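To illustrate this point, we now present one chain and its tokenised fold:
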Amino acid sequence: MITVERTLHPVGQGAFFSEKFRDDSGKLIFCAVYDCGNKDQPHLKKVIDSVFEDDDHIDLLFISHFDSDHISGIDYLMQNKVRYGKIVRKRLIDASTTVFVPFRYPAALTVMTGAYQGIANLITRFFENGIKVIGIDNRENLETRSDVSIPVDSLPNHTTHGGTSIGSGTMLVFNPIWIYIPTMMPSRKGLLNDFERELAKANIQWDKIIDDITLKKNQKDLRNVYSRVGKRGSVTAINMNSLLLLSFSPLELHFNHMICWNNIRYCCRSRYYNFNENSSCLYTGDSDMSNKQEFEQIMIFTEQTLERYHQYKWIGPRLGLFQIPHHGSANNYGAHVAVHRGSRHKGYIAAFVNYHPAKNVFSRRVKIDFLIVGKPLLHVTDNPLTEVIQVMGIN
């Protein structure tokens, strides 16, 4: 039997979620992480140290976007942990890790400067350490995506200039007990098209950039492209993209327990909704769900996917856990996220929101909407008691 531990870690204003797979002996055989960062580095490092043991390793890392509160812990994951001059834990991210980023051209990010120098530095360190970096290409409509699946141990190698891409909605299959589907908001494909048009105007043929030397020759033009593409205030389109991740097992669960001490009343309500039969979770990062039509498009795609691959008997293709995007910010939220009456989809069983109570980002409107409809909402803050652990068993 394989045991899966999905954990929503209490890091405050940031995001850090992990899914660990263990065999009968308790040995870690696979690990996936979605985001790792927050505004309080000492607290984040303590959480990371409590999560990973000396021999652990991260196989897949999904980066929703490049805001510091979502990536600030990745450098720590790439370092050896040293105590009294001795290495007590090797790097959790190394050359055998695959990283997914919400942009079709990962290597192009290495030339960013100014406020985005941190993005360039991070992607450059990935390449320097031989880490496979895969971008998500969201040019196709979700409705027209063909069924494309790739075993996680057969992911494409990055090209000579660093980085490659897969289509939004591609299934990543592990062993084959688990499926990950990285995707992006449909509206963001226009931003990628704008980027490619600007590349053409600058006479940059991306397919001809085959090495670091050629890439550096195009640095100035690429930086000018970044300065023109999709700006919203001081934020470029590159960082407005947010990678969503659907995670679930296509197999029937042997057991499914949820541990959430500070949310115990919600756990009871979750059982009432037969949550124990559902392994699915949709991580949303800082995506914008304020548009009802776009939110429904994502939910319908999710339900169609679950219906195709789930073997649930009477529950049907209903999503289990849903992450309220952008720490519950009112700018990325609409009442339709909580209220599903009259919608074209079945909604989800429970939701969670990750935030720091003192940062004034989490909107009371979200809390009120969920109270009105009586839907479970799990609060994951910096308080250790708000940690949520879902433990599932698969034969």
